[in-house]
Amino acid sequence: MLNSNLIKAIVAIAIIAGGIYVIMIDEPATPTGDINSIQPLPEQDEP
Questions:
Q1: Rounded alpha-carbon distances, angstroms, from residue 4 to 8, 11, 12, 15, 29
Q2: What gap in Å lies between CA 18 and CA 6, rounded to an integer?
Q3: 34 lies in a domain?
Q4: Distance between CA atoms of residues 40 and 45, nearest Å
């Protein structure tokens, strides 16, 4: 029983640490162009 709880604790710590790592490292790309302008969709050929 102790071995099972130890494995669960290690897995939980690894998941939490991985989540924190991803949040700290992730740098969202800045949007390019004017995000306030609305561009019309290009016309599509008939299917």
A1: 6, 11, 12, 17, 42
A2: 18
A3: no
A4: 15
Handedness of CA 15, 16, 20, 21 (dihedral sign): negative
Give the pLDDT band of residue 38 (cuts 50, 70, 90): confident
Q: Which domain holds residue 20?
A: 1-25
Question: Residue written as tokens 């740098």?
Answer: 27
pTM over 0.70: no
The reply to whether 47 falls in a domain is: no
How many distinct structural domains can be found in the chain? 1
